[in-house]
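Project outcomes to date are best conveyed with an example. Our students and postdoctoral researchers have been running inverse folding experiments weekly, and each run begins with a structure described purely in tokens. The record below, which covers 438 residues, was selected by the lab manager from last quarter's runs and is presented without edits.
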């Protein structure tokens, strides 16, 4: 297994890598991400897996049991009708995998580690002489990061019907390129909507690099996810009046950059206040932070118009990424940040509108799967979103394995995983797939 893993990792290493930063730029339906997908298809082919594409940009490689394939009639069944095979004891397929796209200037492991480990786990199972009693699928989901079209887990959301084709058709990237046009330009035939292959899936196990320091602090190579924090993305549009940077008196300005800057400070402060649990945003006792670290708020993306050094801007658009341990606290945190931003806009002579572009509820992974994967391993929550969360919310029993990240850094070129920990993760995933697909 180490050799197979190493070869796959070596294959992917140069794809979309910036020589300047050493980070990865694998935006959905761009050349580097599609090269990763083509590589994935080839790896499936080399292993004799049947490759299935859907019209959402997702790809699954199937290892079918001899004579034991789930009947195709189920493919267009409604979710209730899937109940007979959704679950750990039914006949449904066991799905694993992750994604191949990256954030802008991302790390090597977020996503690809889950796909490479899934393929390596199949190699391990074959070396063990295992023959699956249920189909095992390896998925490569599209646009998990939302780095191009703004909506995280777009491929899995479309697959389960959490995002409608109409909603997806309205999405455009920063250059105004619509999702379907981007897919077509990449040589795909978009057919957005619920994925046929999903109907045969009984459960999902995703392996992922850990994106914090929990496993490092515990001295453990592999952990299991208990839950995903509720989280959301909110677009703040600040509007003011463009004017000359030199001739406009300070008291005559309507500067949306100023309102934004104060809002960024307020967001940081409010998340700290919630985390400290000393007071709650909005002043009510409801939803009080129950952990010493219960909220995160980040402005990481900004657009400024006209974006000139010598002009007061007319517009600043900023995206708030907010995450909390509970939905109630998340809603209250965002409401407080917006309230403070509106008050500031009033003082600055600017205006503000806020749009929640996506809000993901809390996810609690399947208790039975956690018990099976978690024996002897730390079981930890995460504030990162994953396709596993989308599948879990859609009623598919799901769970995640985390592999220790020695830097604790993610969404950055500094993301790391030691090879021995990756191998431990592959073994843990292989054990899980073997048990589930027996
Ligand atoms: C995805 O990685 C996210 O949590 O934003
Ligand atoms: Mn990821
Ligand atoms: Mn990520």
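After processing, the design step wrote out the following sequence:
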């Amino acid at each position: 297994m180490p050799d197979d893993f190493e070869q796959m990792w070596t294959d992917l290493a140069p794809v979309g890598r910036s020589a300047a930063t050493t980070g990865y730029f694998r935006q959905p339906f761009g050349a580097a991400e599609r090269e990763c997908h083509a590589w994935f298809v080839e790896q499936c082919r080399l292993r004799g897996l049947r490759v299935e594409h859907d019209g959402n940009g997702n790809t699954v490689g199937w290892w079918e049991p001899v004579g034991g394939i789930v009947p195709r009639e189920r493919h267009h069944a409604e979710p209730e009708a899937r109940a007979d095979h959704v679950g750990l004891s039914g006949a449904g397929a066991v799905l694993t995998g992750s994604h191949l796209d990256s954030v802008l200037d991302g790390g090597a492991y977020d996503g690809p580690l889950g796909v490479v480990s899934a393929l390596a786990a199949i190699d391990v199972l074959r070396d063990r002489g295992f023959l699956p009693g249920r189909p095992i699928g390896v998925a490569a989901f599209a646009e998990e990061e939302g780095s191009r079209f703004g909506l995280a887990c777009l491929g899995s959301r479309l697959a389960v019907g959490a995002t409608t084709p109409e909603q997806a058709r309205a999405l455009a990237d920063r250059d105004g390129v619509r999702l379907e046009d981007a897919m077509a330009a990449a040589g795909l035939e978009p057919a957005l909507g619920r994925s046929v292959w999903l109907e045969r899936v009984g459960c999902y196990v995703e392996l992922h690099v850990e994106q914090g320091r929990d496993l490092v602090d515990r001295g453990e190579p592999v952990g299991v996810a208990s839950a995903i924090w509720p989280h959301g993305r909110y677009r703040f549009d600040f509007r003011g009046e463009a004017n000359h940077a030199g001739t406009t008196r300070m008291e005559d300005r309507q500067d949306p950059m100023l309102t934004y800057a104060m809002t960024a400070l307020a967001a940081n402060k409010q998340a700290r206040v919630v985390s400290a649990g000393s007071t709650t945003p909005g002043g009510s006792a409801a939803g009080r932070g129950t952990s010493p670290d219960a909220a995160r708020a980040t402005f990481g993306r900004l657009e400024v118009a006209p974006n000139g050094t010598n002009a007061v801007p007319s517009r600043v658009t900023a995206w708030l990424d907010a995450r909390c341990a509970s939905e109630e606290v998340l809603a209250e945190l965002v409401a407080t940040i917006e309230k403070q931003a509106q008050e500031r806009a009033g003082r600055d002579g600017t205006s503000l509108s806020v749009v929640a572009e996506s809000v993901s509820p809390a996810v609690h992974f399947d208790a039975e799967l956690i018990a099976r994967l978690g024996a002897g391993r730390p079981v930890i929550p995460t504030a990162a979103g994953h396709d596993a969360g989308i599948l879990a919310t859609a009623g598919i029993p799901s769970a995640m394995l985390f592999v220790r990240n020695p830097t604790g850094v993610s969404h950055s070129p500094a993301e790391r995983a030691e090879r021995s920990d990756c191998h431990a993760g592959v073994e843990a995933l292989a054990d899980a797939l073997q048990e589930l697909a027996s």
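The first strand starts at residue 50 and ends at 53. The chain has a mean pLDDT of 93. The training component of this project remains on track.
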